[in-house]
Amino acid sequence: MNFSATSDLKEIRNLVNQELLNFVANENKYLNEIGSELGPVAMAMERFLLDSGKRLRPLFAYIGFLGTGTKPSVEILRAAAALELIHVCALMHDDVMDASDTRRGAPSIHKAFEAMHIEKKLSGSADQFGISAAILLGDLALVWSAKMLHQSGISGDTLIRALPMYDEMRVELMAGQYLDIYEQALATQSVERSLKVARYKSGKYTIERPLHFGAALGGANQELMKTYSDYGLPLGEAFQLRDDILGIFGNPQETGKPAGDDLREGKRTVLLAMVMELADSSQKAEINSALGNQNLELAQVNKVREIFESTGALSQVENLISTLISSAQSALEHGEIEPLAKVALEQLLTIATQRTL
Amino acid sequence: MNFSATSDLKEIRNLVNQELLNFVANENKYLNEIGSELGPVAMAMERFLLDSGKRLRPLFAYIGFLGTGTKPSVEILRAAAALELIHVCALMHDDVMDASDTRRGAPSIHKAFEAMHIEKKLSGSADQFGISAAILLGDLALVWSAKMLHQSGISGDTLIRALPMYDEMRVELMAGQYLDIYEQALATQSVERSLKVARYKSGKYTIERPLHFGAALGGANQELMKTYSDYGLPLGEAFQLRDDILGIFGNPQETGKPAGDDLREGKRTVLLAMVMELADSSQKAEINSALGNQNLELAQVNKVREIFESTGALSQVENLISTLISSAQSALEHGEIEPLAKVALEQLLTIATQRTL
Fold it and tell me: Domains in chain B, ordered, with CATH?
């Protein structure tokens, strides 16, 4: 197959989407052969992928590969695209764990299957059916990711070089997710602990490891791996901190979640840990009454937002993001990276922390 | 490393256990390095593996390999052992989906983490924390399986030959699990549909695919693959049917579950579908009042057991098991399999359907 190399992020994203859809269409055909009962599974998997966004992990993996200077191919693109399916698993399971009803403005998977249970008048608990389906669809996405990588058409040697990074990324994701649920369950907040969760849950999983995975596909040396860590770890933390801010201040039309959704969910973020260190007792009481309140009104969201601003917590997190971005930028400037890939990594730095593409 | 080949099942099982424990000890060291918060995860993973039983999937994979006549090695043993961790994932997630409180006589993972939440007086819902932890530990087991396979030390060529079987097995497991939860939610019973669930959930996943995986590791030809299907598919269905019987008639001390637990859980099995076809309306009413009854007393279990016997449903399933076993046996007799492996497969036939080792 003829493959024209590109370092244009939108073009790569379109190619990634195409490969993902081809793969899923093929797998769905197989599911439908097993039984028509699996039709809703196939449809939900495809819709979830179509609805989704930035493909950050495939982009970092592919650009990480380009940075090695090795000639790219459609096979490498497919291997990079496979990372998106790990993320599909993470999101589906995350929504069950957080009991989130929506994802990108649409019902989350467990809610969609709960609705199907009700609509088809199935027996037993609709709630439990939805959760079970979401666990299985997430598991399936995790398995599909590996299958897509294995079938990508890359050579055995290339695959074997990249598998350790691939495995590391997945272990760190699950470890980071556990650190997160444990942190959520602790009564007291700590900036330090929240930063560690951000490092494992996002820093490594979203940016550093995808870059390493791409680099390993391209046969990178240890120096490039180190440069990618120096760029990826701070950028990943900045990405998570931006997510924290959007969870409180984000526009529902952009986030697909209600305003101040992290408050409603009672999410323990770095931003929250900071405001708790800075707030006085009446401000703390105001925040505590909002945290985990399922019926939170916009007026109360706005009141809490004001506390994040007046205490300086918001600007502290913004400053931290800037510092982390500078550190990632400097790693990029000093690293030996193929020039077109370097330009793309600069663009990704903005995309990852501004959260638009 | 010096490796003495054996086809003794107990010896292989001990070697499999040793490899699993080595792998998990190593991974747990890494988890503890990430953070002491992960201590309970590490402990739960190890305990779950230690508590568990028959290692059927590693045994079938290893014997499937021996059947090719290729010289075995500790690396192959490790690759076969990796299948057990897929099963750990399946069991952990299954217990969440079935809301089962116990597994092999001990609290299931979500119950154990729920208890930890209560004991440590953590905040938020203990129930939800337990479920989240069990989802993540299952995910981790699924990833560990792949990592154990990738790191087994088998050559790249061998690995690449076996990956398609490995992936197929995992996709079929997840598809079979969904068929199962969907079947559970349907108001009406069907023997045919229940048999299909048994085929995907157990037939392929427990026996046929592990044999294929082992065969692929050994570079088997298509004929041996076919023999393994002819042996493995009926045997796998027989295995599931035996499980159905144990779910109603099993001794709690052997199953690690309360007497008649499948009734309490309202499980839709082939056995149940058969009794529903044969029972009169008062018998059906008796069964329906037991199904899903969390406070089921032993007297009522015994009454329902009697209906399974008097209607002939139990003996129909026993007859079906015998027919399936004969069919597996005949495949074995006619297949070209390395002689020592053939003997082991005969033993496994008994073990898989009598459920003791």
Answer: 9-350 (1.10.600.10)
Interface of A with B in 24-63 (CB under 8 A): 27, 30-31, 34-35, 37-38, 41
Q: How far apart are CA A97 and CA A131, in angstroms?
A: 9
Tokens encoding B200: 């995907």
Beta bridge partners of A102: A107
Q: Fill in the amino acid letter for B314.
A: L
Question: Which of B167, B181, B266 is nearest residue A132 as measured by Cβ atoms?
Answer: B181
Contact A80, A65 (CB under 8 A): yes
Contact assessment for residue B62 and residue B80, using Cβ atoms and an 8 Å cutoff:
yes
∠ CA B76-B336-B196, rounded to 5°: 75
Is A68 within 8 Å of A224 (Cβ atoms)?
yes
pLDDT at B50: 84
Q: How many Å apart are CA B192 and CA A295, to the nearest integer? A: 47
Alpha-carbon dihedral A108, A114, A117, A120, rounded to 10 degrees: -60
Q: A177, A168, A223, A229: which is closest to A198 by C-alpha?
A: A177
CB A304 within 8 A of CB A33: no
* DSSP at B106: E
ipTM associated with this complex: 0.94
pLDDT 10s digits, B271-312:
999 999 999 999 999 999 999 898 899 999 999 999 999 999
Handedness of CA B254, B256, B259, B261 (dihedral sign): negative
Which residue is listed with tokens 């995790």?
A: A142
Quick one: DSSP state of residue A187? S
Q: How many CB atoms lie within 10 A of CB A53?
A: 11
Nearest to B303 by CA among B255, B258, B263: B263
Residues, chain B: 357
When CB atoms are compared, the residue of A97, A121, A200 closest to B135 is A97
Q: CB distance from A147 to chain B under 8 Å?
A: yes
Residues 117-146 of A with CB under 8 A from B: 117, 121-124, 128-129, 131-133, 135-136, 138-140, 142-144, 146
pLDDT band at B1 (very low <50, low <70, confident <90, very high): very low
Q: What is the mean pLDDT of chain B?
A: 93
